[in-house]
Amino acid sequence: MSSTAMKEKPRAAETAGLSAPTVRVKRLPQGEGLDLPRYETALAAGCDVRAAVPEGEPLVLKPGERFMVPTGIAIALPPGWEAQMRPRSGLAARRGVTCVNAPGTIDADYRGELKVILINHGAEDFVVRRGDRIGQLVIAPVWQARFEEVETLDETARGEGGFGSTGV
């Protein structure tokens, strides 16, 4: 075994005995020089994506503002998989910055640039600079359900109770 192979840690999917999909990544011109998505720890579920705003032209999100921040990449997922764009918990906890549509779904047939819809819920301006980690991408399997129209549904203990019916 090579010294490189001995140093590599198993990934989460490999640890669970699953085969991870291959996601093809196309770097767009505005993404030149930026790191591709990567997992920061061996068992991380999400890989960080970076802001592809122009060098020297940071984006300033004022409190309450939202913006679709470019990442400079497009991806091709295999059939049966999706990507979910999620907020970075550190940005949310420390600065009040999150994703408006969390998680944002990226379908296997989408080929456009990935963007992160950030919103500033904090009290201060939030500055996004080129290369900042702005979101995390989670790759997950997808099932497309079959829908069958019926006259009645089976009875359950919960029934039609919803929106807080099970307590606070």
Largest sheet features = 4 strands, antiparallel
Structural class: mainly beta
Helix-strand string: HHEEEEEHEEEEE
Query: What portion of residues belong to β-strands?
Result: 25-35%
EC number: 3.6.1.23
Enzyme class: hydrolase
Function: This enzyme is involved in nucleotide metabolism: it produces dUMP, the immediate precursor of thymidine nucleotides and it decreases the intracellular concentration of dUTP so that uracil cannot be incorporated into DNA.
Cofactor: Mg(2+)
What does this structure look like?
The protein has a single domain, classed as Deoxyuridine 5'-Triphosphate Nucleotidohydrolase, Chain A (Distorted Sandwich), CATH 2.70.40.10. The chain is built from three helices and ten strands; from the N terminus they run ααβββββαβββββ. The chain has helices at 3-7, 12-15, 89-95; strands spanning 24-27, 47-50, 59-61, 66-76, 81-86, 97-99, 104-106, 113-120, 126-128, 133-141. Strands 1-4-8-6 form a four-stranded antiparallel sheet. The longest helix is centred in the middle third of the chain and has 7 residues, at 89-95. Residues 1-7 have low confidence and may be disordered.
